[in-house]
């Protein structure tokens, strides 16, 4: 996942300083993110895989709470990029999902830093990282 994120960021016109910090498991992503912010990072992509078991889902939820807390404390964005092992049926599709979701989040990270107007234009359009976009709601208000 990190390789895909780095590759995607390096394709962008502005150079981005990248620092990797590897943690032992997804529940450690909050602490790793805080360490990166303390070292001067402006934004963190927190990358992780969630297994198939119920305990894995619990760990992912705990990890997300940790990431939310660090964002609130630091006032900086963390884009949590988690792929659940049971989102697809086979390893080839799982590898595709890892790559695509990570790249799309890396593009969002770049836009948050350098092109917030692009984020505003996409707001409410049903964008999804990984699978096909849902698209905007198609309802008429009275």
Question: What's the SSE blueprint?
Answer:
Elements: H1 2-10, H2 29-38, E1 43-50, H3 54-74, E2 77-84, H4 91-114, H5 116-122
Parallel strand pairs: 1-2
Helix pairs in contact: 1-4, 2-3, 4-5
Describe the 3D structure.
- The protein has helices at 2-10, 29-38, 54-74, 91-114, 116-122, and strands at residues 43-50, 77-84.
- It is mostly helical.
- A two-stranded parallel ribbon has the order 1-2.
- The protein is globular, with a radius of gyration of 16 Å.
List its traits.
mainly alpha, 2 strands, globular, two-stranded parallel ribbon, 142 residues
DSSP strand tally: 2
Strand line-up across the major sheet:
1-2
Radius of gyration: 16 Å
H/E element sequence:
HHEHEHH
Helix/strand class: mainly alpha
- Indicate the proportion of strand residues: 5-15%
Q: Give the N-to-C terminal Cα separation.
A: 45 Å
Mean pLDDT: 93
Percent of residues in helices comes to 40-55%
Low-confidence stretches: none
Shape: globular
Largest sheet: 2 strands, parallel
**Tally of helical segments:** 5
């Amino acid at each position: 996942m990190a390789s895909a994120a780095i590759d995607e960021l390096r394709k962008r016109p502005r150079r981005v300083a990248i620092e990797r910090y590897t943690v032992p498991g997804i529940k450690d992503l909050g602490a790793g993110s805080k360490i990166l912010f303390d070292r001067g990072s402006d934004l963190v992509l927190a990358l992780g895989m969630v297994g198939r078991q119920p305990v894995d889902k619990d760990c992912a939820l705990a990890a997300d709470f940790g990431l939310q807390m660090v964002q609130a404390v630091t006032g900086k964005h963390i884009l949590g990029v988690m792929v659940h092992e049971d989102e697809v049926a086979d390893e080839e599709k799982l590898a595709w999902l890892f790559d695509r979701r990570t790249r799309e989040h890396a593009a969002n990270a770049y836009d948050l830093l350098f092109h917030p107007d692009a984020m505003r234009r996409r707001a409410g359009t049903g964008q999804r990282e990984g699978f096909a976009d849902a698209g905007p709601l198609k309802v008429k208000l009275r």
